[in-house]
Amino acid sequence: MDVRDSGDQRSGTRSLSKRQLQPLAREVAASLPCVSLGHPFVEKLDVYKVGDKLFMIVTDDCDERIVTL
Question: Where are the domains of the chain?
């Protein structure tokens, strides 16, 4: 999947806006088997893990839309 500003369109690719990225990342992570969601650092950081291995952090701040894999 290609993620960039929605104004940049290429034939045959799907583009996501910055507003769509976080909800999609959360949805995909939650659909995976054995995934847990927690807030071990601060309440505004959603931390996704499989077992004791962290694989994704998503901010809950609309001014800073960050997904870390």
Answer: 18-68
The CA distance from 36 to 17, in Å, is 26
Q: Any residues with CB less than 8 A from the CB of 2 and at least 6 apart, and which? A: 10, 13, 14, 15
Per-residue CA distances from 41 to 6, 34, 38, 44, 53 (Å): 32, 21, 9, 9, 15
Q: What is the pLDDT of residues 22-42, one digit of tens each?
A: 999 999 999 999 999 999 999
**Which residues in 3-63 belong to E strands, given as ranges?**
35-38, 45-50, 53-59
Task: Please name the helix (run of DSSP H) or strand (run of DSSP E) that holds residue 27, with its range, or none.
Answer: helix 18-31
